[in-house]
Structure formats: C-alpha cells, structure tokens
Design a protein that fits this description.
Blueprint: H1 2-23, E1 47-48, E2 51-52, E3 55-58, H2 64-81, E4 89-91, E5 102-105, H3 112-117, E6 132-140, E7 143-150, H4 153-165, E8 175-179, H5 186-189, H6 196-278
Helix pairs in contact: 2-4
Length: about 280
C-alpha cells in the first residue's frame, strides 16, 4: 500500500514538472542593463543612418571661445559624414527638452543646459580648478549627453580642440581630463571662491564692456566715413561751382569782347564817315 502511495506521489510530481516545462517552454534570456556611453564610440554615438543626430549647445551669454568651439565641432561632423548640418547649433534658451542627443559646451556657470545635464551642481564650478578641463558623458533616457567644460574659457576651448583632434577610437571611458596650460587663480589658491552669482555678474559685465567698446569703435568708424563722404561732397560741389563760375566768366568776357569790338567798329565807321564828309 505504501509503495502504491509513493508511486502515485511520484507520478503527480512528474506530471507537474511536465506541465511546468510546457508553460516555460521559452528559454530564459539574459536581462542586459543599459551600458553607459563610452568615448571610444565618438563620433558614431551622435550619428544615425549617416546623418548627424544631435544638437551642439552654447550658453546664451557664452564667451566667444565657446562659440568658436561650437563652430569647430560642426565643421568636424560635416567633414566626418560628408554632409551639411542644418539647425544643429543651438543656444541654451532654444533647447526645450533633454530628450535628444546633445553636446553642451561650457560649464554650468556659462551654460544652463550643462547645468541641467549635471543636475545643477552647487557651486556651478564644482570640481573645476585651474589647469584642468573635462569631457564628460551622461546617459539620459536612451540619449547621449556630452559636456565639455573648463575652469576658464581657454580650458573649455582646449577640451573641445582635444576632442576633435584626437584619433577616432583612441579615447576611452565616460570622461576625460584635459590638462591646460594656464595660470592659477590666486583667489582660488587661498580657498576663497567667488559665489556663482558674482561670477555670472562679472561675466555679464565683461560682455557688456566688450559690446560698448565694439559699439564705440563702430560709431567712430561710421562718423569718420561720414566726414570723409561729406568732404568729398563739398570738394565736388566746390569744383563744380568753380567750373560753373569759370564758364560764366568766359561767356561774360566773350560778350564784353564782342561789345567792345562792335563799339570800336562803330567809332571807326563814324570817324570814317566824318572824313568822308569833309572831303
């Protein structure tokens, strides 16, 4: 009896195993995690179907060197894919969503998109120091974000140049440190950092100062051109006036000469008539 019971239990177990195998007939698959982007895949990480698939962003008040870096990157991708790139250059205020591939040039102090990508670090120049610049990669909802930042304008430019001039496939990892030859800031050496707001005010003040200089220079050039044009106009008018006066004088002289000739002829005629009468 015990043997029969054991056999029945064994049969039930075998049946359950068989049904379990049928229900789970699909083989198990490895669940792969999202692999963060690696610089070894640059620039292909921003290329799709042979087209540039990203935007290159600078801050609304970016220094001129950031704009130059943006232009150099665009030229790099144009050369790489052999096609023109339209609408890829953006200001931070023109970017409405992070759900796209992007290259953000400038630290969070200069570029609000860099700040969003880096989750708004406080202070805005956190981790930055003289002589160092970074190329950083981030993975966001299936999109690749790259931030190129330096302690100074020179540092950011140096990092961007390093990126486009490096041999394709030679870089590794999610971030790269770029050494920059620049003097250390005495204030930072003493550990007394300026507040971000002060830095932004100084940056704005410098930009405004440069604008004022440029406007002043342009105004001066325009004024000089106006003076030159005015002189030319006056000289032309004087010349024309002289020409007119000379012409009028010539006509008057001719008229006077004709009058004098007529008078002389008349006098000679009158004298001749007198002599004729006396004979």
């Amino acid at each position: 009896m015990k043997k029969i019971i054991l056999q029945l239990i064994l049969m039930v177990l075998l049946i359950n195993i068989a049904f379990a195998d049928d229900l789970g007939a699909e083989p198990s698959r490895q669940i792969k995690g999202l692999v963060p982007p690696d610089l070894s895949t640059f620039p292909e990480m921003f290329i799709k179907d042979g087209n540039f698939n990203a935007v290159i962003v600078v801050g609304d008040k970016a220094p001129a060197s950031d704009v130059i870096s943006q232009s150099n990157l665009i030229q790099f991708f144009i050369s790489y894919i052999g096609k023109t790139i339209i609408g890829s250059a953006k200001l931070a205020s023109e970017v409405s969503t992070l759900e796209q591939n992007m290259i953000s040039i400038g630290s969070p102090c200069h570029n609000s998109i860099s700040s969003q990508i880096m989750i708004e670090p406080k202070p805005c120049d956190k981790w930055l120091e003289p002589g160092k610049a970074f190329i950083l990669l981030y993975y966001y909802k299936g999109y690749t974000h790259m931030v190129i930042e330096g302690y100074s304008d020179k540092g950011t430019r140096a990092a961007a140049d390093f990126l486009v001039n490096s041999k394709i496939g030679s870089l590794r990892g999610a971030n790269v440190l770029v050494e920059v030859d620049e003097p250390k800031d005495e204030t930072n050496e003493q550990g007394a950092k300026e507040e971000p707001a002060v830095k932004e005010e100084n940056i704005t003040a410098n930009i405004e100062e440069e604008k004022e200089k440029l406007i002043s220079e342009l105004t001066e050039k325009i004024a000089n051109k106006s003076k030159e044009q005015s002189k030319k106009t006056d000289n032309t008018a004087i010349t024309k006036t002289k020409e007119k006066i000379s012409s009028e004088q010539k006509e008057a002289i001719k008229t006077e000469q004709k009058k004098e000739t007529n008078i002389i002829k008349k006098i000679i005629g009158w004298i001749s008539s007198l002599f004729g009468r006396s004979q």
